[in-house]
């Protein structure tokens, strides 16, 4: 694998503390960031944390861009975002974990931010297996044998897959919305009308009009998703624009569209991942220590915790987070998410 290189520094627009690094932010940053909380969870529109240390490494089929903070010899936590979000979902989680002694790795998934495909010939594939393979490749490139994994949305599905199929690489797991491993076969079954309505964008993406529409309007489209998935989160424009930059990735649209078309069986995956998908289609259980979480105002489609509790056969706990917390739980309730990461290894 190639050597890691610092590629750039990013700042939160419009903040007076843009020069503060994560390593210096610590708990003082938490006190500022969580002013205006309800029940210990962030609802304020103000955002102060910013990643200073952005690196790049060749891993598998990608050149993966990732944020890193904390001691090099500390226990490793890898945090994974979903769609349509990016590494800044964990900007306020990270200093809390650094203060607890963790080395924190937060990668941009394929199709986001500065992460790039190494070859123009590689399919812009978004199937569930390939994202997990990407993260295993990242761990190999960084010589990380085992880590605590945490995520939401696509990130939660990815940590589920790694914990289920490669438990030797996963010390423990925090998963927002629980167990999200699926299959094309399972997705053939229709849902009740109200549930289908929450997946409206999936059906839009199934059409060529949807592909063109998302390509042309990804900025406003994804802002709409933020509002509907987290209806009580009063994020400001600067917070959204910071993440919206990640959607400018030249492969973003192709990866997102393929992901949702693959789920419905409208697009093929790559043959080399067929065996992994067969194993995932059996809905494997997860034995590593796990905390699942759910916000009380999640406007996105998500399963009921009772529906997946038995999928976790090891030490397990579920936490409901109140105070108007939506789909982007780590960014909306960073203290609660960081506490779960710290607590999960102690279950």
From TrEMBL:
This is Alpha/beta hydrolase fold protein. Keywords: Hydrolase, Signal. It holds the Pfam family Abhydrolase_1. Coiled coil: none annotated. PROSITE patterns: TAT. Residues 75-204 form the AB hydrolase-1 domain. The keyword Heme does not apply. Transmembrane segments: none annotated. It comes from the Bacteria. InterPro entries: AB_hydrolase_1, AB_hydrolase_fold, Epox_hydrolase-like, TAT_signal. Residues 1-33 form the signal peptide. One of its GO terms (molecular function) is hydrolase activity.
């Amino acid at each position: 694998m190639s050597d890691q290189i610092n590629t750039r520094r990013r700042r939160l627009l419009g903040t007076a503390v843009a020069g503060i690094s994560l390593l210096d932010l610590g708990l003082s940053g938490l006190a500022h960031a969580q002013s205006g909380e309800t029940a210990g969870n962030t609802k304020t529109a103000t955002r102060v944390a910013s990643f200073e240390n952005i690196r790049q490494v060749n891993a598998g089929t990608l050149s993966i861009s990732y944020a890193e903070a904390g001691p090099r010899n500390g226990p490793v936590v890898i945090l994974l975002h979903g769609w349509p979000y990016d590494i800044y979902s964990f900007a306020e989680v990270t200093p809390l974990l650094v203060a607890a002694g963790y080395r924190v790795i937060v990668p941009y998934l394929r199709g986001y931010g500065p992460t790039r495909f190494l070859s123009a010939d590689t399919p812009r594939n978004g199937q569930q297996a390939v994202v997990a393979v990407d993260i295993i490749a990242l761990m190999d490139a960084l010589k990380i044998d085992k880590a605590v994994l945490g995520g939401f949305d696509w990130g939660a599905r990815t940590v589920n897959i790694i914990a289920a199929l490669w438990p030797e690489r996963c010390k423990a797991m925090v998963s927002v919305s629980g167990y999200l491993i699926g299959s094309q076969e399972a997705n053939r079954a229709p849902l009740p009308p109200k549930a289908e309505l929450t997946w409206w964008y999936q059906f839009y993406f199934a059409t060529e009009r949807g592909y063109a529409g998302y390509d042309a309007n990804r900025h406003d489209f994804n802002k709409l998703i933020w509002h509907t998935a987290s209806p009580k989160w009063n994020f400001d424009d600067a917070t959204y624009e910071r993440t919206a930059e990640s959607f400018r990735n030249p492969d973003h649209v192709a990866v997102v569209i393929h992901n949702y078309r693959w789920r419905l069986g409208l697009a093929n995956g790559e043959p080399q991942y067929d065996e992994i998908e067969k194993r995932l289609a059996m809905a494997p259980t997860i034995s590593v220590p796990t905390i699942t979480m759910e916000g009380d105002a999640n406007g996105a489609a998500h399963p009921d915790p009772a529906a997946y509790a038995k999928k976790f056969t090891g030490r397990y706990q579920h936490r409901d987070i109140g105070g108007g917390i939506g789909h982007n739980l780590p960014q909306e309730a960073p203290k609660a998410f960081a506490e779960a990461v710290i607590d999960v290894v102690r279950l």
